[in-house]
Amino acid sequence: MEKIVLLSAALYGALGIIFGAFGAHALKKTFTEDLLKSFETGVKYQLYHAIVLLAIGFQLPFTNSLEKSAAWCLIVGTFLFSFSIYGLCLSSAKGKKLRFLGPITPLGGLLLVIGWVLLGVSFL
Fold first, then answer.
1. Which 3-state string (H, E, C) describes 17-57?
2. Which of 54, 65, 98, 113 is most buried by its number of CB atoms within 10 A?
3. Average pLDDT by stretches of 10, the chain with 124 residues
């Protein structure tokens, strides 16, 4: 489990830097201010959770289901939250908003909250 968590952290970290640079430079000309802010939110959450995954990957033994569930919620939640925002922003800028992604963002957010709560409970 440690390797999955650490690899997820590294992947999210690298992609967060790439997407952040992409948003700051390439998308600045085509995105509205609101779309840029939304895209930036996706990048921030992705990078924050990459750091958290890195920390727990090194610190937790993942010997119980609570720790494993927390990690999976953070991994999947980050993907659903951030990548659905990217998809919504990119498709909106093209004039073909992918509306099915709308409900995925809060689902990802819910998984992030659950991951944090499970992480807190595992510390008890």
1. HHHHHHHHHCCCCCCCHHHHHHHHHHHHHHHHHHHHHHHHH
2. 54
3. 97 97 88 94 98 97 96 98 96 90 96 98 92
